[in-house]
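Researcher: Re-running this chain for the archive, since the previous output was lost when a drive failed. Same request as before.
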Amino acid sequence: MARIRFSIFFSVFVAMVGLMIIAPVMPPLIRELGLSETHSGLIISLGSIAMAVMAPIWGRRSDMKGRKPVILLGFLGMFASYVLFTLTMYAGLNKLISGGLLVVLLIAARGLVGLFIPAVPAAAQAYMADVTDENGRSAGMALIGAANGMGLVLGPAIAGAFALIGLIWPLYIGAILPLIAFIVVLLLIPTQKAVIHAKPPKVSPFQKGVRLYLLADLTSMISIVSLQVIGGFYFQDQLLLTTTETARMVSFGLMFCGVAMIITQGLQMKKPKWQPKPLILAGSLLLIVSMLIFLFVINLYGFYTAYFLFGVGAGLIMPGFMTGSSLAVSREQQGGVAGLVASVQGISAVIAPILSTTLYQLDKHLPFVFIAALILLMAITMLVVKAKPAGEAARAAKQH
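Model: Regenerated structure tokens:
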């Protein structure tokens, strides 16, 4: 059991690093290539759309073919995609290709990364549901949340360290890590029979019991991505920093956020009986408090405190919606619901950058007000609407 948990943890960690390791070096690489910020946004957004579309498909595939084959295929696809993306970047930097062809190849390669990455978290979450009971589900999902948090912290750190050698070096590491993860999963995770052998019962995002936790997923992920996108602008504008100072201080803020997530989810693993709704409500309160600190405590230590509290809140909410959605469906639908959770995260990565930057251009305070209001609305909905009990959900799914 320990090796399965480690393999699931490592798989999700590598998938998150695969996403995060690109982010810090994309802006300077794009400028080195002579492309515009619009091209950068297009490349990243289309990759996120691919994630949103493919995640449910991978989840249902894991129900039919087994979790391990889907995770392995995801890592093989990530490896091939990163190799293509890195080769394209290398060719562009060395003036071997340029212009429209370069943009098209970068979009295609980033789209392939987005196509294969969601196979890993979708199948991994479903696998964790397979190997935990209802009482231990929260602790199991907290382990996945901790892997996400560690990837959030170490992804940019790895990118920053290898960028000292050269801007393209983080991409080399991004290509090697999936290969290492493939070997780890191949050797450590036992081959498991597929949950079902016929077409799996489809999970609707509007299904009673599921929709409430997908709402929490959407809300929290929009908040997380928005803070990543506009946090640097807000730091620089409010504290009158240089670009170099901003990059360093935002990196520290994201590090505090990620460490807080890891600590919070580590504590949850020791308290496995925490229920989804209280986790989400407690996390919502902390996210709202962090937004208020961003708005009203205008100094460096206030911002770092806000990042840390935001990390604690996100560390509570993420296992909450993963556990709640898992318990709301039957065993045969675990891959399907895990795919929906991953898909919502991809949708958030498309919506949040456009929404948060638009609001920021209107007024730099608006994104934080919006996030606080969105979280408050979600928490009120969580209090008012009763989630469908897990047992009842499972029986209903079987009847269909």
